[in-house]
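Project outcomes to date are best conveyed with an example. Our students and postdoctoral researchers have been running inverse folding experiments weekly, and each run begins with a structure described purely in tokens. The record below, which covers 470 residues, was selected by the lab manager from last quarter's runs and is presented without edits.
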């Protein structure tokens, strides 16, 4: 039996569920920071960059593992299908207990053996002597290690390569965040554009309706009303074009996020919060630490690679040292033990020293040094170019901020002019031409304002990428 509290909860449950399920399935509600974080986790380029880091780590371990002991195990089985080693009847002279010498080939090596006559007689026929070659198996275990100077330097090169791959991953993340921010702000700006155009359209439709009413009562000419109707149609076409552009931007953002292309987007960060004039001004006051720039860091790592290549070239003059240990256990599967010439334990070592190469190794060293000088020159040239780029981007951002301030005031003034002329037109103190011109002016002012907003955002993003602000 249900308790009163449970019954009340079941009655209220349908009222509580809509508040939790009001957002349709497949809707992404993201702030700018959440959108950037989502893209870092799901963007295909970011996923590939992370995989490249893992590949670099595995490649470095592969190089390190080549300098560690290598162990191999094997088993060898031999069966000579009942073959008997025959020494000839003349070699078996003498009575019981007489020893007879002979020489056999074991692995291509002549070996002197002495076999008791009694043993030979038991293993041979009456007419000739011989030794049965029983099946055998050999279990072997080999431990070897070889170290060269090139391997050591190669491990150092792999470490630099891993660092470069990680820097590239961070640069890809920076680019992904910047692209998301750019498209995110573009959507916000386009939504604001559509909102401004809708507001202008409402005002213009009201004026067109007033003009047509004046024509109907004979207080105005039809041509004036027609001009306003054309202006209304033109504005509607502009709004439709803006909405199509807005949808294209939303699709681009979904691709950049790595989300389902059928998802709906809900952007929660307002444009005013993204467009921070104070933050942009502080960015201009920030100094340029070139060592934080990803491109410069990659060039530094490239120079390190060139230095290690010089060391690698010198390693051709160093010896190669190797050592090994081998264990072998041979077993015969016949009724009698055969000849076992395989030693159970074997240890060996070797050293190989390069002596003369007709100058080829020294030429390799000189070539590597030239590559190092070229890498240093490239880094120095890139450093100068990045400083020039910093000055240019700072100038672009300062100019964009000035243009944004001008266009903001221009939009406000143009809106007041339009409202003033619209009021005069309603009282018959302004012509339809003035209304049309004022309407065109405000549309142009709105477009210029949005362009100024995007210029500030783009200039800020580019400068942030150059400075690598985290």
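After processing, the design step wrote out the following sequence:
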């Amino acid at each position: 039996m249900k308790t009163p509290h449970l019954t009340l909860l079941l009655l209220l449950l349908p009222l509580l569920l809509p508040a939790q399920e009001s957002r349709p399935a497949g809707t992404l509600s993201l702030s700018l920071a959440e959108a950037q974080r989502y893209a870092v986790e799901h963007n295909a380029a970011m996923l590939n960059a992370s995989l490249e880091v893992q590949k670099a780590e595995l490649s470095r371990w592969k190089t390190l593992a080549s300098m560690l002991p290598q162990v191999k195990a094997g088993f060898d089985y031999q069966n000579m299908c009942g073959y008997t080693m025959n020494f000839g009847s003349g070699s078996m002279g003498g009575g019981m207990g007489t020893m007879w010498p002979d020489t056999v080939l074991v692995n291509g090596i002549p070996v002197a053996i002495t076999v008791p006559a009694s043993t030979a007689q038991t293993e041979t026929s009456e007419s000739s002597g011989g030794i049965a070659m029983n099946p055998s198996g050999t279990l072997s275990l080999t431990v070897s290690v070889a170290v060269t100077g090139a391997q050591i330097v190669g491990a150092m090169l792999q470490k630099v390569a891993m660092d470069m791959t990680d820097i590239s991953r961070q640069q890809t993340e920076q680019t992904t965040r910047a692209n998301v921010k750019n498209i995110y702000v573009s959507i916000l700006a386009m939504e604001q554009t559509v909102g401004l155009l809708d507001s202008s359209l409402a005002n213009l439709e009201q004026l067109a309706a007033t003009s047509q009413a004046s024509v109907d009562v004979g207080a105005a000419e039809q041509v004036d009303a027609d001009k306003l109707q054309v202006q209304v149609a033109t504005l509607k076409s502009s709004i439709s074009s803006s909405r199509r552009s807005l949808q294209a931007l939303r699709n681009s953002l979904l691709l950049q996020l790595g989300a389902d292309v059928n998802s709906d987007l809900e952007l929660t960060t307002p444009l005013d919060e993204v467009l921070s004039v104070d933050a942009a001004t502080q960015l201009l006051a920030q100094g340029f630490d070139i060592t934080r720039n990803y491109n410069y860091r990659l060039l530094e790592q490239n120079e390190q690679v060139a230095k290690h290549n010089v060391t690698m070239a010198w390693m051709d003059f160093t010896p190669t040292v190797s050592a090994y240990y081998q264990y072998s256990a041979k077993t015969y599967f016949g009724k009698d033990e055969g000849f076992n010439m395989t030693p159970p334990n074997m240890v060996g070592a070797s050293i190989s020293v390069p002596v003369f190469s007709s100058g080829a190794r020294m030429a390799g060293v000189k070539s590597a040094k030239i590559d190092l000088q070229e890498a240093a020159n490239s880094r120095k040239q890139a450093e100068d170019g990045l400083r020039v780029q910093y000055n240019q981007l700072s100038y672009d951002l300062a100019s964009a901020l000035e243009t944004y301030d001008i266009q903001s005031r221009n939009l406000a003034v143009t809106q007041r002019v339009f409202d003033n002329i619209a009021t005069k037109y309603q009282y018959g103190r302004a012509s339809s031409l003035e209304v049309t011109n004022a309407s065109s002016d405000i549309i142009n002012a709105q477009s210029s304002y949005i362009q100024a907003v995007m210029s500030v955002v783009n200039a800020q993003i580019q400068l942030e990428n150059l400075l690598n602000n985290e």
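Residues 71-83+139-146+319-353 form one domain. The first strand starts at residue 27 and ends at 30. The training component of this project remains on track.
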